[in-house]
């Protein structure tokens, strides 16, 4: 499947087959700043339709409902959840029966997003809130410096899902002297707090894309939560970190982004696997 698709991810998701990917990771931009008109749309397969989707199938779009007054959501924050909800509903649909969604978000928004994801997936399908902790940049002087992001993990099924803990990279013990030389040399598996540095502004990994996330974090997700040959989707793909992690470990990827810059960076970054 290895593909990069440019476009609004909602349209791309609506054209995807149900239960067609095993792993989804997304890192949406907080608050698009756009007012989302409350228009409910439906994409219908139609041989005469004006849009061509996957596999050459044709579709037309039907407007189901436009809100009276039609001006959009109340405030900027409503806008963000209103923007996310239909995309997350589609993400749930396209996820395979034993699939996982990883939702990467800012500590100020995570609580609202969790409530919404609980509604879409069901609370029993919430598995972990992973804290990605780093330590870089300026330090606040009037409160504790916020140096973490949150990654919510949901599974489509509360019991049946991929969790290859043996595939996980290992981390050093905090007190190696207490565990013996053999264990200390092997290291231990991480908890739900993942210490990992940000992408170094001067390092090899850097693509120049401002919001690029570290390969180490994505490789861990891909290796533990999918199997070789499975399909990995990122529909806020940015610089394509998810795609590189997937390809490097023998998974297939579908990367979606609407920005010209993101597509340019990804085409270069993922050229070997396209
Ligand atoms: C925070 S960045 C993702 C960064 C990525 N995780 C990485 O490692 O490079 C979010 C991306 O979402 C894209 N985006 C925002 N709204 C979108 C939409 N409606 N459809 C597709 N892409 C969108 C932006 O262009 C941006 O590249």
Q: What would you note in describing this structure?
A:
The protein is an alpha/beta fold and 274 residues long. It folds into two domains: 3-32 and 75-273, 3-Layer(aba) Sandwich (Rossmann fold), CATH 3.40.50; 37-72, no CATH class. Helices cover 26% and strands 25% of the residues. The chain is built from seven helices and eleven strands. The protein has helices at 9-14, 76-94, 110-121, 181-186, 215-225, 241-248, 260-269, and strands at residues 3-6, 21-26, 39-45, 51-52, 58-66, 95-105, 126-133, 148-155, 193-195, 231-234, 252-257. The strands form two sheets. Strands 1-11-10-2-6-8-7-9 form an eight-stranded mixed β-sheet, sandwiched between helices. β10, α6 and β11 form a beta-alpha-beta unit. α5 crosses α6. The longest helix has 19 residues, at 76-94. Residues 32-38 and 66-75 have low confidence and may be disordered. S-adenosylmethionine binds next to β11. Residues 8-9, 27, 29, 32, 209, 211-213, 236, 238-239, 241, 256-259, 262 line the site of S-adenosylmethionine. One of its GO terms (biological process) is methylation. Residues 21-267 form the DNA methylase N-4/N-6 domain. GO terms for molecular function: DNA binding; N-methyltransferase activity; site-specific DNA-methyltransferase (adenine-specific) activity. It catalyses: a 2'-deoxyadenosine in DNA + S-adenosyl-L-methionine = an N(6)-methyl-2'-deoxyadenosine in DNA + S-adenosyl-L-homocysteine + H(+). It comes from Edaphobacter dinghuensis.
């Amino acid at each position: 499947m290895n593909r990069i698709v440019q476009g609004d991810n909602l349209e791309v998701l609506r054209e995807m087959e149900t239960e067609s990917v095993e792993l989804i990771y997304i890192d949406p931009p907080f608050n698009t700043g756009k007012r989302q008109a409350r228009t409910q749309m439906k994409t219908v397969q139609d041989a005469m339709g004006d849009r061509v989707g996957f596999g050459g199938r044709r579709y037309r779009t039907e407007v189901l409902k436009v809100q009276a007054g039609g001006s959009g959501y109340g405030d900027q924050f409503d806008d963000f959840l209103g923007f996310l909800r239909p995309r997350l509903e589609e993400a749930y649909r396209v996820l395979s029966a034993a699939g996982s969604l990883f939702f990467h978000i800012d500590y100020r928004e995570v609580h609202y997003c969790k409530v919404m994801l609980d509604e879409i997936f069901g609370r029993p399908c919430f598995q972990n809130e992973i804290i990605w902790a780093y330590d870089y940049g300026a330090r606040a002087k009037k409160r504790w410096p916020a140096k973490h992001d949150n990654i919510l993990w949901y599974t489509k099924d509360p019991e049946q899902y991929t969790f290859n803990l043996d595939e996980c990279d290992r981390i050093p013990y905090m007190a190696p002297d207490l565990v013996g030389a053999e264990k200390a040399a092997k290291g231990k598996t991480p908890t739900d707090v993942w210490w990992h540095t940000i992408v170094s502004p001067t390092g090899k990994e850097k693509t120049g894309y401002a919001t690029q996330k570290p390969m180490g974090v994505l490789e861990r997700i891909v290796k533990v939560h999918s199997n070789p040959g499975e399909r990995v989707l990122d529909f806020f793909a940015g610089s394509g970190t998810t795609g590189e992690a997937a390809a490097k470990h023998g998974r297939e990827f579908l990367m979606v982004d609407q920005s010209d810059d993101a597509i340019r960076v990804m085409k270069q970054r993922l050229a070997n696997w396209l």
